[in-house]
Design brief:
The protein is α+β, with helices and mostly antiparallel strands. The protein contains 16 helices and 46 strands. Strands 14, 15, 19, 20, 21, 22, 23, 24, 27, 28, 29 and 30 form a twelve-stranded mixed beta sheet that branches. Bound molecules: beta-D-glucopyranose.
């Protein structure tokens, strides 16, 4: 970062945008008929910088309060790659707790600059700063901009930065931009018009930012070009036909499928409905030929209305975009064409969208040439692959991966589409282990942890959403993210830095939770969305015990033995309180699936009590037809806990379940991402409660961590984090074929790979007539501690040799053979008894 930015001034426009509406949060519902008229323009800034000659090098460090784009001499500024191509950071500067910090971006801009006058021009929309999404917590009026630059021109350094000599105005083609509500762009307003405008006035110095300007170290938000989607089908309809329902059905004029299906003429009164076949997050990029002034409106939807009936939650005719679940988010693109004869190309840069379908309407006849769904999110390397013999499980895995792509968007969000898109801490912690398998997201999560620390209350409570903007703080399973996530990141990367940077704040949180004696924190959200309740007190004590356990371990890693002892003592006090309240006659008193899971996952009771709990849980799951009754908390833990207690058969039965509630149920209902509710949409009854019904909510996708760590068997070695040493403990589907739950099949093979920080680990298993064949590849420099299910060591061969001839056999649990393997490729064959 150019240090000069510290001395530069934030500037804002003299003309004010006016007080923004910050009230709406699930108070109204999106509808295509909601008016969308904006005519003001967006905060814009400019300055002419004179250079004595074309510079040999030049950098600018720049950021804004609001989403910004910088243009130099009319060209959008991005990162110039070695081959001369330019990659753009999108939706800069992303979301941080702006009370504490904003991120600055530094660009090499020599290639943009010329000898003589150079025009710097920036556009800043509300973004996370004054947009509805931040509920007015930072500011309500001005967007602000700051820049510092220097250019080296033949031995001379020219410095420039934002101050009162810049000009500002509310104008330009971006008439309106808001994360929730979308973007209104008037392409008739050219760059030349903007520059010639009489509205420019000296900018005001903005005094409303008291935070720090931080360097940009986290992954930028970028377009993931390799994931871009074109529509797979197009339906053109005009009006509605009566089908005897409340809204009727769309009156289809024609349908087209396949490549180029969107290339068509669109008349006023017609609607073009495009299906991208994948619920994704990003924006449309389209090319059209339209008369100057034509108003093209795009609506976004995750699902289509299915019957036209209100009783099934439909908000329009069967076959049309269902938009109600965006709640008050208007989520739209309105584009006014400039009338270029050969066509014009546009994509919004001030709003993003969660959608599978787009509907386009036009005020005058126009030619739609192409529409691309650009996939956008925080950039990270994807690190996982997972296939099995079961097509629906493979689809579930893909859905989980897509959920992460869309919800890792500057911060880790709950959902990417409705009037929320917030950093709900509970969701983040529940999904974090899965996320760390699917992507190299260490630096992404460390950035989010900094947001969480920035928002931490003076009391020590972590807020329910980070960066903070709404809701409360200090809630079990939500606030506990501040303890769980750093530890999960450490387990995967083995880098103490994340613990060091969080430790003080973690301690502060523990002090907060402990400040009310054995009361602990609150549990406002309980086991969120569970089909069967679990008492809040139970949740509080179990989550708190887990915190204490992690704190003890973290203290030891950081060689703070005294603190480790303190947390060990706390853990035993919490367990004593748990025993007092929740153990009765040698049994766990609460009987919900989640209550049992919590007791088992966090070792809340003596061994004999846990054994009984495991047996009761088995009966409960069986009695529930091998279906879940858990909410966010229980679902995040259930399968791994079952496997830990030797009940992988049940974990498989839950995974392979296709009835409500289950992971595959939503797959059967057509899901292409993980849904917020098990029954967000059902073919039988239609749409779930529109008040809270996201079709891209990753929390339940947490099961992915079990899929890797038990099904494929690639797991952290908690004694040696970082995967240089890892545990290989594949648990194949060994259910008795004669006792499978109704309608279920056994899984016959799994094939997975994980690009761990220590290299790529691949693992596969296939069922044979007499046992299993496992293939494992251990990366260079790594060691796998294998735990292979087999009756005894003489039933195991490795690369053709009896395992006891080529490895030292270490004892592990009954029915399992343990040995170590160093780098290499292995075929491990087991025989049944
Ligand atoms: C969010 C959740 C979140 C919850 C808190 C919801 O509105 O979408 O995912 O964790 O509120 O209970």
């Amino acid at each position: 970062m150019l240090s000069e930015i510290k001395n530069a001034k934030f500037i804002c426009t003299h003309e004010k945008m006016g007080e923004r509406d910050t009230a709406a949060f699930a108070t109204s519902f999106n509808s295509k008929s909601t008016p969308y008229d904006f005519d003001r323009g967006t905060a814009s800034f400019r300055k002419t910088v004179e250079l004595p000659e074309k510079p040999e090098s030049a950098v600018v460090t720049v950021t804004a309060l609001g989403i910004f784009d910088l243009f130099i001499n009319g060209k959008r500024v991005g990162e110039t790659k070695n081959d001369g191509s330019v990659v753009f950071d999108e939706y800069k500067p992303g979301w941080t707790d702006y009370h504490k910090r904003v991120i600055a971006y530094t660009y090499n801009v020599a290639s943009y600059l010329e000898k003589g006058a150079n025009t710097f021009y920036a556009v800043v929309s509300s973004g996370w700063w004054t947009g509805r999404i931040s509920f007015g917590v930072y500011g309500r009026l001005d967007c602000a901009f700051i820049l510092a630059g220097e250019a080296k021109c033949g031995g001379k350094t020219v410095r420039f930065s934002t101050d009162g000599s810049w000009e500002g105005a509310i104008l330009g083609p971006v008439m309106f931009g808001d994360i929730w509500d979308g973007e209104f762009y008037d392409a008739r307003i050219s760059y030349g018009d903007v520059m010639a405008s009489e509205k420019w006035m000296p900018a005001d110095i903005f005094e409303g930012f008291e935070g720090e300007i931080s360097d940009h170290t986290e992954p930028p938000i970028r377009e993931k070009t390799q994931l871009a989607r074109r529509p797979v089908s197009a339906v053109c309809y005009s009006g509605t036909k009566d089908n005897g329902t409340d809204h009727g059905e769309i009156n289809v004029l024609y349908r087209k499928i396949g490549d180029g299906c969107e290339d068509t003429s669109l008349m006023p009164g017609q609607t073009l409905l495009l299906d991208f076949a994948q619920n994704m997050v990003g924006r449309p990029a389209f090319r059209v030929i339209a008369e100057r002034g034509t108003r093209i409106t795009l609506y976004f939807a995750e699902l289509l209305n299915d019957s036209g009936e209100d009783s099934r939650g439909n908000d329009g005719p069967a076959g049309s975009a269902y938009v109600k679940n965006y709640r008050s988010a208007k989520s739209r693109v309105v584009y006014i064409a400039s009338g270029e004869k050969d066509g014009e190309y546009f994509f919004p840069t001030h709003s993003f969208y969660g959608f599978r379908y787009i509907e386009a309407e036009s005020s005058k006849p126009c030619e739609i040439l192409s529409v691309t769904g650009q996939v956008i999110g925080s950039e990270y390397r994807e690190t996982s692959s997972f296939t099995t013999s079961d097509r629906e499980i493979n689809k579930l895995f893909e859905n989980i991966v897509w959920g992460q792509r869309g919800n890792y968007f500057s911060i880790a969000t709950d959902c990417p589409q409705r009037d929320e898109r917030l950093g709900w801490t509970g969701d983040t912690q529940i999904f974090s282990e899965a996320a760390l398998y699917n992507g190299d997201v260490g630096s992404f999560l460390r950035k989010w942890l900094r947001d969480l620390r920035d928002s931490q209350l003076d009391s020590g409570a972590y807020t329910d959403v980070a960066p903070f903007c709404v809701a409360g703080a200090g809630n079990a399973a939500w606030g506990d993210a501040g303890i769980i996530v750093p530890y999960n990141v450490y387990r995967v990367y083995g880098d103490k830095a994340v613990l060091e940077e969080c430790f003080e704040s973690m301690e502060k949180y523990m002090d907060f939770v402990g400040s009310r004696g054995m009361e602990g924190h609150e549990a406002r959200y309980g086991d969120w969305l569970a089909y069967e309740p679990t008492s809040k007190k139970n949740i509080i004590l179990c989550l708190w015990a887990n915190d204490a356990d992690i704190m003890e371990k973290v203290s030891r890693v950081l060689e703070k033995e005294e603190k480790a002892e303190k947390y060990a003592k706390l853990l035993s006090d919490i367990k004593a309180e748990y025993a007092r309240l929740f153990i009765e006659n040698g049994e766990i008193r609460e009987k919900s699936q989640t209550a049992y899971i919590l007791a088992l996952a966090y070792n809340m009771a003596p061994k004999d009590v846990l054994e009984k709990a495991a047996a009761s849980l088995r009966e409960k799951i069986k009695g529930n037809g091998y279906r879940l009754s858990t909410g966010f908390i229980g679902t995040g833990l259930i399968n791994a806990t079952l496997s830990r207690y030797g009940m992988s058969d049940l974990a498989y039965s839950l995974l392979c379940q296709t009835e409500d509630p289950s992971w595959l149920y939503s797959v059967r209902q057509g899901a292409t991402t993980v849904w917020e509710r098990w029954n967000s949409y059902t073919k039988k009854s239609g749409f779930g409660d529109m008040g809270m019904n996201s079709f891209n909510h990753y929390a339940y996708g947490a099961v992915c961590a079990w899929m890797f760590s038990y099904m494929a068997g690639i797991a952290c070695d908690d004694d040696a984090p970082g995967f240089r040493s890892f545990v290989y403990r594949p648990v194949p589907d060994m259910r008795d074929p004669s006792a499978l739950p109704d309608g279920q099949k056994r899984i016959d093979f799994v094939k997975a790979s994980y690009d761990s920080p220590a290299g790529t680990i691949s693992s596969a298993w296939t069922r044979t007539d007499s046992g299993f064949i496992y293939t494992l590849s251990v990366p260079e420099g790594a060691t796998a501690h294998c735990r292979i299910t087999a009756p005894s060591a003489d039933k195991v061969t490795v690369n053709g040799f009896a395992v006891s001839d080529c490895a030292e056999i270490s004892g592990c649990d009954a029915g399992c053979v343990g040995f170590d393997l160093t780098a290499g490729k292995y075929e491990i064959i087991t025989e049944n008894e």
